[in-house]
Structures are given as structure tokens and as C-alpha cells.
Amino acid sequence: MKVLVTGGAGFIASHIADAYLERGHEVFIFDDLSTGQKSNLNPKATFLEVDIADAKAVKLIEQIKPEVLNHHAAQMDVRHSVADPQFDARVNILGFINLLEACKNAGTKKIIFASSGGAVYGEQDVFPAPEEHPTRPSSPYGVSKCAGELYLSSYYQAFGLPYIALRYANVYGPRQSNRGEAGVVAIFISLLLAGKVPVINGDGKQTRDYVYVGDVVNANVAALTSSYVGEINIGTGVETDVVTLYELLRQGAGSKLAARHGPAKIGEQRRSSLAAQHAADIFGWRPQVSLREGLERTIAYYRGNIAS
């Protein structure tokens, strides 16, 4: 297939591009390199440096005529979305509409959309949260992901453009950026390997559902040929608190450094985990990599790329 991967120089989407190429698909990558890295790009893909909200993106899609759009380009910093909601909306909502319009006109046959389980569900009523859980995002970033899902539903109903929205848990693994606030695993590893003391926000008992990037890639591979339309959680269903996560990383890095605790972040979600049975039922997806194994792989990656 001819597949366009947006954000393909970034952490998750670069792995997805690699997997699609390995399976013989023709891959085009859009990335403005605002957060993505050229070093993540697969040389077998056709790379185009472009802002998804720009008119240039529309012209390129009309020329490429991708059969599938895998959309991962995003403003993904929750705190930045709170500080500058207009910028968040420009990228995550207006940029996405720009792509949807272009894909509709170019005859694209499917959209795979990177959504966020934690961000769209907000404070959960049940753990782990199924897809039927109410969506009540508490940040502009979460609102933008909900909006993306709603636009997809609208385009499917109005124009027959099928989609799968993958609601990710907290994705971690090789190539994750250690800058910003989204990659706590990468941040902690980088500090530990540099002999610096990480800071845990608050009491560290806030929980997240950590899913390895390789498992997320497998979900995107399965989504490519699935006929399902709708939203699917991609997580492990397991809650891990930050104190436990840090201890696993400290042991894996062979460090004796004890983390220090800083003030809690205002508005930070207390607990989050995603039920993944739907993904198993729809396309046989289940997480394969345990947290301990995934963290070991990620630490090994950072040891080999310490300069990054």
C-alpha cells in the first residue's frame, strides 16, 4: 500500500514507518522537525518537511494520493496546551482538518489516528477504562484528541472515509525524547545514566498504564488491514505508580541514586489505565512486552545513544 505517516521523524511514528517499510509498503513521511529528529527517519521512506496545517501539505497529498493516512503529527505537551491552547488547536485540530480534506479529495481509503486514552477519558470512573467510558478531557490537548475522533466520525458518516482511532496509554521505548513533559521514562533514564537525581512530582503514587512502543507498532500494523471503524484502546490494563517505575529504572540502570520529591503538578491526573480486550477481539492485539523487559530495552538504547 501507499501510506502517508505524519510525524514520521518522531518517537512512535518513526517505528511505525520502519514496520510498514519492512512489510513492503511504500511510505511517505510528513514532519516539520519541530520535535522530530532526522536521525529517526528511515532512508527507504520519502521524507517531506512540511507543516500539516500549511497549504503545501494539501498539494503534496493531492500528488501522492495515499491509500492510508497514519496520523501521528501533533502538539503533544499537555502543559503547553494549557499555556497556549490556540497553538494546540492550530496543530491538532486545524492541521488535522487540513489533512482530512486533502485525503477526502485524494481518494484515501483509511485514516489511522493516534489518540490518547488518558487524555480523552480524564479522571476515570472505573479501572481499567473501556472504550465506552465517558470522555471528559481536562486539558486542551485532550479536547483536541476528542475533537479529532469526532471529526473522523463525521467524515465517515458524510463521506464514507473509514478510520481507526487508537487510544494510547503511556507509550515508552527507544527514540522517546527526554525533553518536554511527556516522556517520564526517557527523562528518568537520561538523568540516572548521567548520575543526576530525578525529581518525582508529589508523592509519586499517581499511576499510569505504560505500553511498550513495539507493541504500539504492532497495533498500527494490525490496523492497516482491519475493516473495523471506531476507537480502540491500546494499553496493558495495568497501573504502575511513579515510585515503582523509578525503582525499576534505578535497578535497571544499576544506580544507587534515590529520587527526591518535588511539589505535585496542579491538575495532574491521579490514576489511569486502559482496558485492552476490545483490541484483542477486533484484531488479535495483545501487549507482548512486560514493563520490566521494555524498560531494560529502553535503558540499553539510551546507553548506546547517551549523547542524545
Describe this structure in words.
There is one protein chain. The chain has 308 residues and is an alpha/beta fold. The protein has 2 domains: 2-170 and 210-234, 3-Layer(aba) Sandwich (Rossmann fold); 175-209 and 238-274 and 290-304, Alpha-Beta Complex (UDP-galactose 4-epimerase, domain 1), CATH 3.90.25. 43% of the residues lie in helices and 17% in strands. The chain contains 11 helices and 13 strands. It has helices at 11-22, 55-64, 78-83, 85-106, 117-121, 140-159, 184-193, 213-225, 242-253, 277-283, 291-304, and strands at residues 2-6, 26-31, 46-49, 68-71, 110-116, 163-168, 170-172, 199-201, 207-208, 210-212, 230-234, 240-241, 260-262. The chain is globular and about 55 Å long. The chain starts with a strand and ends with a helix.
Low-confidence stretches: none
| Widest sheet: strand ordering | 3-2-1-4-5-6-11
What's the total number of strands? 13
- Radius of gyration (CA) equals 19 Å
* Main β sheet profile: 7 strands, parallel
Secondary-structure-based class equals: alpha/beta
Oligomeric state of this protein: single chain
- Coarse morphology: globular
